[in-house]
Amino acid sequence: MILSLQYLRGLAALAVVYFHIETQIVRIGGEIAPFGSLGRFGVDVFFVISGIVMWITTVRSQPTATEFLARRMARIAPLYWALTLAVVAVALLAPGAMRSTVVDGPHMIASLLFLPWPHPLGHGLSPVLIPGWTLLYELAFYLVFSQCLRTDEKRRPWTVLAILSAIAALGFAPDLPDAIRFYSDPIILEFGAGVVIGWLFTTAARPSRALSLLCLASGLMLAILFTVRPVPLHVLAIGGPVALIVAAFVLWEKSNGVPEIPSLNWLGGVSYSLYLTHILVLPVVRAIWSGFGISSGAVASAAFYVVSIVSSLVVAHLVWKFVEMPLTRLAQGLLSADRGRVGRSGGLAPERTAPAAQSQA
Fold first, then answer.
1. pLDDT band, very low/low/confident/very high, at 352 (cuts 50, 70, 90)
2. Structural domain that includes position 298
3. What parts of the sequence cross the membrane (predicted)?
């Protein structure tokens, strides 16, 4: 495990929660906390990290495209499907409890298939579980990456980046269908940046501290520059600085190591559950808060932020422990059993063991 990625993943999920609290606090007349808008950049951190992790894990295990996709689906799909079906069930049984959800057959099916589909309430091409829009990009990236696994390892990161760049360039064409415009958003280049960072991590024997500090300084300077002088392209204004900052932490860890911080390690562990469930928790917190008729001053607003964050973390931990992990183990167990049956019948070969020199991740 690369601890810096685990920490950044957890902090990114928490930042998204912090950002989404704004939507709820304005409904109770509260005061928005400073720097809340920075939380929306948590998604960019997720995408860069995803590219890094996909590179590092596949360099070690050398899976086929089918094995890779099956593993990724076993990791991301069970919890997403379970929560999507839970939201649909609540919307059917208690329609008033889910104001942002209307059960629509084609939309629900598209959501379960990780396909972009117009949300019946006008939330763009979002699935039933709205934060799941990022998973649509994740799966698209997995498909691209899986087809590059047969490419020579030295050329693979650049092949991935070239394909993603071509897809992003397509997005600038006029009159595209909504689905193509969705997938060709330049934000997909953040996955490619992550792949390149992962390649650097595995090929650089011992990156210098100067390189890490240069990445960090460059990322922060670009972030400040693009704040003062905004540019219209998100992937440049946000994705570039985020990628450099993530690279700084990852390369620093390889050359210097980072201390294990149990609380951040835990936060990274529950980050997927936190990201998918917080959007369901926050409206409940707001409804209970409103029911108590608490005032909307500065102190009350700060308390609302604290209660919302703590509630989201508690629910995330419970979902992680009792839903995400059991479902993931079940899916991975079924996958392993199926791979064993196919292997015995002469199909898939057993996975190759990672070289000892590449065992840290």
1. very low
2. 3-342
3. 7-26, 38-58, 79-98, 124-145, 157-174, 186-204, 211-228, 234-252, 264-285, 297-320
